[in-house]
Amino acid sequence: MGEQWGSRTIKLGVIGLGNRGSSLLQLLLNMKDVEITALSDLYEDRMQNALEAVIAAGQPAPSIFKSYEALLAQSSVEAVIIATSWTSHLPITIAAMKAGKYVGSEVGGASSLEECWQLVHTAEETGKRIMLLENCCYGREELALLNMVRQGIFGELIHCQGAYEHDLRDEVALGVENRHYRIHNYKHRNGDVYPTHALGPVAKCLNINYGNRFVKLSSMASKTRGIQLWAQTHLGADHPSSKTNFQLGDIVTTMIQCAQGETILLTHDTSLPRPYSRGGRIQGTKGIWMEDGNVIHLEDTSQAHAWESFDRYKEQYEHPIWQEYLELGVQEGHGGIDYLCLRAFITAVSEQTIPPIDVYDMAAWMAITVLSEQSIQLGGSAVAFPDFTNGQWIERTSESGGKYAL
Which residues form a coiled coil (predicted)? Predict the structure, then answer.
């Protein structure tokens, strides 16, 4: 993307070099204002592959560390990208802030409310900033919808939906062989273990932490069949996944109540045969949009009781971020959203500003996992949602400005 690069070079460390970390690294190596100065991973082969990629891109050889603590101790690292296993994101982010680094963390779910509070308190005490790298917030459709919401096209919002609906049976069942951490969550946890793709764009539409907040949630989980059946069919009866009693329900449904009265429905659905979808829905007093079918209905525009294609609205209400992106050239990485999300992070580091998805967003969105686990254990009973802003949400107006603001 031939954009206006930052006024200075960001010296960046990357922690976690599996599939996600290595793909982010390739995008970062195409940015002229980023220098990769350090790499860290538990696996030597992943580190060596990343080292070779940095050198091949024409950058000096970075330092490599098996220990992320050793990387964080380096003065040559100003900021870090964390792309490790889900349950390690918050502990490493907290350690990085204490080490004086600006942090960009990949997504996932929290393991406890305590670590969410530790995240918030550490950010407030150190003054260091973090960004949750929720790429779906930068999707073309999601940003067009955000633009429409802000212009009042849907009227007053009443209800929103989001989902992570993705057939991951092979990835989970083969998790041990492929060194992928997802399987360990499915074996031992029952809740929405991956909520932020579904929740992030909706939270921005509903101004969560900026005049609104999550108040309570209730979750239920279906029975568990999909992963084990897939393993028995494709891997044989003797494969460990064929004998594992996975704890995660095949379908996990979570309902959230917001302070301003809106409701949000989240669905986690990755253990059964299905095409990919994020199940988006935005519904207000003047109309409704639904991702599945790419349809919209607006009361004063659409034919009565009839859907129409969302395509022309997407173009009509193209967000300025995507207007520029289309002109300059869309990059690889989940349809271009990975690159936009990384640029939002690098720009915030360069300008030392509050990022578009900040510490309060990160704590609230990741807390869905542990709260949904609690609710399921209580038979679907509603559980109270912590206010990680400690009341600041009432008067917070907006995040910092800038071209990537949400």
Answer: none
* CA-angle at 281, arms to 303 and 190, nearest 5°: 155
Report whether 289 contacts 147 (CB < 8 A): no
Strand partners, 266: 162, 254
Nearest residue to 255 (alpha-carbon basis) of 264, 246, 244:
264
Q: Examine the domain organization and report whether 141 and 95 are in the same domain.
A: no
Residue 406 tokens, joined: 């949400």
Q: Quick check: 300 and 288 in contact, CB under 8 A?
A: no
Interatomic CA distance for residues 341 and 134, integer angstroms: 7
pLDDT attached to residue 2: 43
Classify residue 349: in a domain, yes or no. Answer: no
Global confidence as pTM = 0.96
Position 332 scores a pLDDT of 77
Question: What's the token pair of residue 9?
Answer: 């070079």
**Residue 273 forms part of a structural domain:** yes
- Do the beta carbons of residue 356 and residue 137 sit within 8 Å? yes
Q: What pLDDT score was predicted for residue 400?
A: 65
